[in-house]
Hints:
Layout: H1 2-110, H2 116-131, E1 133-142, E2 147-154, H3 158-162, H4 169-177, E3 181-182, E4 199-205, E5 208-218, H5 227-272
Helix pairs in contact: 1-2, 1-5, 2-5
Amino acid sequence: MDKKRGILKKADEFLQIFKQGEEFTRNLLSENERLRFRIAELEEARTQDLNAAKIRHYEEHIRMLKDELESLKERFKRVETENRNFEQKYLLVAEENNNLANLYVASYQLHSTLDYEEVIKIVVEIIINLIGAERFAVMLMDERLEKLVPIASEGISTAAIAGVFPEDGIIGTVLKEGESYFSEEPLQEGSDDPASPSVCIPLKIKEHVIGVIAIYSFLVQKRSFSNVDYELFNLLAGHAATAIFSSRLYTRSEREFRTIQNFLELLKGKSKQ
């Protein structure tokens, strides 16, 4: 009986040990599961931290790229503005060079010949091609007759301008004062009054006015006067007057010389008889 109790006691102790081992194993598995879960959480947190760091890095990189893009845009705008300024300056220089070339050509042509008809033709070409006049007249003073004599015209009848006297309208004022006249009306308005043109330029040799250039209307494309127009007006006022006066004197002297020469030839022929 005692032996049987001893066996039961040992069996009970074994069962207790087994239960403790089972409980320990269960606790161990539970702790292992908890640790695995914790490790997973830590790894996930680490991954999130890494992702957050990458995101911050990317955001910083994007910000830097945006700043660089804005800087490049600003530099592009400055370069574009500089290019426009250089282009405008280039166009102004090109226009100025063209204007100077036109002035040089006009001045050279006016003094390239002493033929009176050729000089008048050159004056007319300058008025049409360089100034852009549509209707105009060139008139000289006849001191002996005290009247204006038209020597060239375009778009206006000789009869109309022949009736203009030295004291009439704007032309009379310009002849008297020796100063150019420019109408304040738009160029396209023009003028139909032979004595009062839109523009009147005195032909002057020093302070002596020998005639006028009267412009009554301009070509359609002529909207306003440029600096070179005023330079051309000044050129015509002085150089055209000198060229016309010199060529007229030369032509007259040539004609008188031929007359004298013919007369001498005639006398020689008679003396031989």
